[in-house]
Structure formats: structure tokens, C-alpha cells
Amino acid sequence: MSDKNIIEFVVNELDLQPHPEGGYYAETFRADDITNPQGRYPSDRSTGTAIYYLLTPDTFSGMHILTSDEIFHFYLGDAVEQLQLFADGSHCVVEIGRDIMAGQRPQMVVPKNVWQGARLKPGGAFALLGCTVAPGFDFADFSMGKRADLVASWPDARDMIAALTRG
């Protein structure tokens, strides 16, 4: 089966839809329990959510920030490189994948209020990930980054920011 056919199969089988940040997703879990620790959110949130998330060579996860912690889980395909931008002006690029000997991790945590974006490593055909968010994901807690603003604050990450933002 070709990579294109695998991608089409995964999209259809898991009922994935385009995600506003890029890639494809389907929510698979939303806890019934609610929380709003110290009134941090403008309204109550689910205690947790989970999605499938698919990246392809023509998609990427655009730079965005959440007000909850997010855990990425690697399921299938090729490795992903993820840029994380921290409030102190530092940044790191991590690899999410199955090759632990090469420094990849099958699970990666992005703390709340850390800018993040991801793409397939060069040459990759697709990656199927899972994302778990706690407290649960709500689009009200999601912001997309603007290239100029991010580059101004993290100039050492300019090239990766440019690759993970849209014009």
C-alpha cells in the first residue's frame, strides 16, 4: 500500500477532519467531570480530552499555545520534530517517534503556556499521534502564533518558526 493510500485509509478509518492548526484530527475522549482550578478559565473545563492527530508531508502543526498541559503519544509512521518556545526566551526542538536509541521519545509533554508547533522530519510520509490535554482542550484556550511576533521574541528559532507559521 502506498503512503498516500495509507494516509487516506487512516483519515477514513479514524474519521479525521482538518484541524485549524494544520493536520487532521478526531476527538476520541472528553471526560464528563469538570474542573476550573482557582478560576483559571472563563468557564468550566472537562478534566481531560484526547484526540488522534495526523501529520502528512503537506501539513504541519502551526505554532500555537494552550493554557493546559498537553501530552503527545506516538502511534504510527515517521518521526515528528516539535519546536517548543518558553517564556524565558529559550527554546528546544524535540523528536517524537519510536527510535529511542536516536533520542526520539514516544511520549512528549508540552507544559501549559509554552508555544509549540510540529512537522514531520524531512523525508517522512506521515505520523499518527495522540494528544491528551488536562484540563481538557477548549478552543477558547487556544491561540495561533504570528510569525513576526514569535521571531521577535525567539530570534534564535527563526528558521523553525518560519517553517511552522503561515505567512
In short:
This protein is mainly β and 167 residues long. It is built from 3 helices and 13 strands. Strands 1-2-5-12-7-10 form a 6-stranded antiparallel sheet, with no helix packed on it. A 5-stranded antiparallel sheet has the order 9-8-11-6-13, with no helix packed on it.
Structure description:
By secondary structure, the chain is mainly beta. The chain has one domain (3-163): Jelly Rolls. The chain contains 3 helices and 13 strands; from the N terminus they run H-E-E-E-E-E-E-E-E-E-E-E-E-E-H-H. Strand 1 (17-18) and strand 2 form a beta hairpin. The longest helix is centred in the N-terminal third of the chain and has 11 residues, at 3-13.
Notable characteristics:
167 residues, mainly beta, Jelly Rolls, 6-stranded antiparallel sheet, 5-stranded antiparallel sheet, 41% strand
List the helices and strands and how they pair.
Blueprint: H1 3-13, E1 17-18, E2 24-30, E3 34-35, E4 45-46, E5 49-55, E6 61-66, E7 69-77, E8 80-85, E9 91-96, E10 107-110, E11 115-120, E12 127-134, E13 142-144, H2 147-153, H3 158-163
Antiparallel strand pairs: 1-2, 2-5, 3-4, 5-12, 6-11, 6-13, 7-10, 7-12, 8-9, 8-11
